[in-house]
Amino acid sequence: MKVILQKDVLNLGDAGDIKEVADGYARNFLLPRRLAVRANDGNTKVIVHQKRLADLKRDKRTKVMKDLGASIDGKVFEIKVKVGENDRLFGSVTAGDIALAIKKTGIEIDKRKLDLGEPLKALGEYKLKVRLAEGVTPNIQVKVIGEA
């Protein structure tokens, strides 16, 4: 039986793929769990249309993210933090703090897109990557400046 996968199925295929499977596997596993639908002309046309829409949406999002990446690539953002004796920070600089500093310049970036590795716990300059979309990773520079 030919089926169109609605979701990714381990060891079978990805969503949108058309696969030939055993009748029992389709009737007893794939169809009841809504992992697949029978491949007929109507369902095939719907899946092709959905794939085309998803591709257009992904291309539009990538274009927007490339424009955003070009606007922040290489920029320097300063973050002022309170320090104690010997220039030790009270706490650390997190991705949320950096996202807030970027937002003050008028550019909105989700803090989960910033690739810190670890929170910044010392004064200085740091180079960070911003993972905006597939293949769009601009670099920014963060200066952590102490204030008494």
Automatic annotation (TrEMBL):
It comes from Leptospira ilyithenensis. PROSITE patterns: RIBOSOMAL_L9 (PS00651). It holds the Pfam family Ribosomal_L9_C. Residues 13-40 form the Ribosomal protein L9 domain. GO terms for biological process: translation. It comes from the Bacteria. The gene is rplI. One of its GO terms (cellular component) is ribosome. InterPro entries: Ribosomal_bL9, Ribosomal_bL9/RNase_H1_N, Ribosomal_bL9_bac/chp, Ribosomal_bL9_C, Ribosomal_bL9_C_sf, Ribosomal_bL9_N, Ribosomal_bL9_N_sf. Binds to the 23S rRNA. This is Large ribosomal subunit protein bL9. Signal peptide: none annotated. NCBIfam families: L9 (TIGR00158). Belongs to the bacterial ribosomal protein bL9 family. GO terms for molecular function: rRNA binding; structural constituent of ribosome.
